[in-house]
Amino acid sequence: MAGVVNPKMPTMKTQLNLAPTQLYNIIEESPFHIRSIGRSGEDKLTNNFFQRDDHFLIIVVINGKGSYCINNQKGVIANNHLLFIKPGELNSLQLAGTPEGFLLSFSQKFLDTANRDAGSIYGNLLQLCAHSRGTGLGNEQLADLTCISTIMLKEYCNTELYKDELIKQYFKIIMLNLSRLLEVPEKIYRQTRHEELLNNFNALLEKNFRAQKMVADYAGALAVTPNYLNEVIKKTTGNSAGHHIRQRIALEAKRQALCTNFCMKNIAYDLGFYDMAHFSKFFKNTTGMSFSDFKCKDRVLQPVA
What we know:
By secondary structure, the protein is an alpha+beta fold.
């Protein structure tokens, strides 16, 4: 793993004055980042927070209330709350008053290195994201998680020898504790051949959905035929590989429509569409409404009072 770095960041007060598109560049370039929420007067999440496209998020709210929008689905945050968010899913996150907690942000690259000695981490994380999007914690569970996070944050902020290795070990402890308290099996995640193909397809899709839009592109990279890939993905998920490709592209288009000031032309170009009519038709066929109608529809959560 590349060294975990901790470049000096502007305070959250400075961040809140920036446009949403600029916020992506402020969140750490490193594969792992941990920060406290509300531990000082200038460290508050009191406005929209936007996720890096390639990072998972684990958000621990010790005290505070607020709301979130993930994949255009709204939810409420309260004290002792835990959120799991996969890359590119977060539309908005708002916490009112003076909240307190922790935020962990990490890439697939970090997971790959942390997972070498603990095969359950990646499988457990996917299950947590899928089945425990937002969940409450008991006082004892929260105390344990807060203790580990505090130690991990201290290690993240120092420059001592073996810093990266210790951070990976603390991360494993956090994941195992979360798996235990949320009753995710601790045994190593054993994949069937179909599950392995699905996970490899999903990983490729996350990396390449902007440039590769055909099932054949992914089938070739996975050394299977397009028909076989479609058959396995449909049997495993209920939908074909082509459906997942279209939905992933549409999800990113909707996220950018909600969270940026980009016009349709900018979004289409970013997603590899050079014909506006083609993108417009694709968006309507995939989402059930025109881009302009979706853009105008008030789907982003309003600030919490």
